[in-house]
Description:
Number of strands: 0
Strand content: under 5%
Distance between the termini: 82 Å
Number of helices: 22
Oligomer: single chain
Amino acid sequence: MAASASSTRISHAELGISSVIETAQGRDRLGGVMMVVTLLLSVPYEFTGNVGLGLAAGATTLLGLACFAPQVRRSRHVFLAIGAALAGLAALTLADPGEALQSALGRASFIAALFTALTAIRSAAITDPGIVECGRFLAGQPPGRRYLALTLGGHLFGLVLLYGAISLLGGLATESVARERDERVRRIRTRRMLVAIQRGFISTLMWSPLTFSMAITLSVVPGASWAGALPLCAAGAVGLAGLGWALDTAFKPPPSGSPAAAPAEGGWIAHLRPLYLLLAVILLASGAIHFAADVRIFGAVMAIVPLIALVWVGLQPDAAGHRLTTSAGRARDFAIRDIPNLNGELTLLIMAGFIGTLGGAVAAPLVAASGLDLASVPTPLLLVALFWIIPLTGQIGMNPILAVSLIGPFLPAPDTLGISPALMVFAITGGWALSGATSPYTASVLLVGTYGKVSPAQVGWRWNGLYTLACGALISAVILLMTALV
C-alpha cells in the first residue's frame, strides 16, 4: 500500500511537470528559471574556474533556449537553426570539436548570466518612484539645456537600465512634448529629445562594465582589461556625447516663437540623487570585488548586481508595507515573468555569441589554409577597418556580438602589432557604439523609431547619419594618431 501511495505521488508529480512543459506559459516560466540557474552557476564559476560549473551553466542555458524556442519569433528560429547546423559542421570537420563546442557554450552561458543579472537591476529600477522622477526632471528641462540633460540622462540611465533607458526617457520625453500645439515644433522637439537620449545611451557602450560591448570585446582582445582600457574608452564616450551636443547646437532650427518651457523645479543633485547613489554602489562594489578577489569585472558585476537588486526591491514596500514579502514575490516574478518576457531578445543575444564563437572555430582552418595573415596588414589600416566593419555589418542585420565573436579569433595580438590592448578595445567598442546609432536592427534604433513614429532606417541615417559620419571621422583620426605615436 505504501508503495502504491508512493507511485501515485510520483505519477502526480510527473503529470504536473508534463502539464507545465506542454503549455507556452509553462515553457516560458521553466526557461526563465533555467536562466536564473545559469546565473547562479556562472557566479561561482567566474571565481573558481571549475569546469563542472561551466559545463552545468552551458547545459542550463541550452535547456532555457529549448523552453523558449516554441514561443519566439521565426527570425529567432533562424539563429537557432544556424547554431545547430554549425554544431553539426564542427563535429564533422574539426579535429577537436568538443573544445570548440565547449568554448561556444561558455560564451553563450556567460551572455545568459550577464543578461539575467543586468535585467535584475533593471527590473528593480523601473518600479522605484525616485528613478522615474529623475527621468521626469531631465525630460522637463527647458530647451536651452534639454539636449545636454537628456544626453546625460541617456548615459546615466543606460548604465543601469540598458535599452530600458530609452523606453523610460523616451516615454517621458514624448509625454512632455505632446502639449505643444504646433505640429512642426512638436516633431522637431521629439526628434532632438530622442536622439539626445539615444546618443547618451550608446556612449555607455564604449566604457561601461555593465555592457555586452565591453564584455565581449575584452574576451577577444588578448591582454585587455577593463581598468587598462577605461581611460581611453571613457574619453571616447565623452567625445561621442560631446560631438552630438555640438552638432545639435550647430544645426538646431531657429526659435519657433512658442513659449519656452519653465525649468523643472528642484536642484540637479537633489533630483538625481537616487541615480547617483545607485551607480556609485554598483560601480564601487563591483570594482572592490574585481580587485580584491582578482576576478574579472564582469564576474564581479554578476555577483553583486542581483544582490543589490534584491536589497533595493526590499526597500520598496508594497501598499501594505510588506517589504520581505515583496522581495520574495518580486524574485519569483523575475524568474517566471520578467525573464520570459524577454525570451526573444535573450535568444538572439545568446545565439549571436554561440554562432560567432563556433563559426570562428569552424572557419579557422580555412583561414589558415588560405594564408591570410592580418598581422601583415598595416596596423592603422587594420584598426580603422576593424572599427568600421562593425556598424557596416549592422546594416545587414549582424548583431555586434556575432560580428565581434566571429572576427575576434583572427585578430593579431596587440603586442604583435606594437600597440596597447586598450587601443584595439577602443576601436571595437567605438564601432559597436556607432552600430547602436545606425543599425535598423538594434533595439536602440527600433525603440527611438517607435517613440518618434518613424522607420528605423530614418532614425539610423536621416536622424543620425551626419552624427555617425562625424563620430566615425573622429574615432578614425584618434586611431591613426595613436598608432602614429607608438
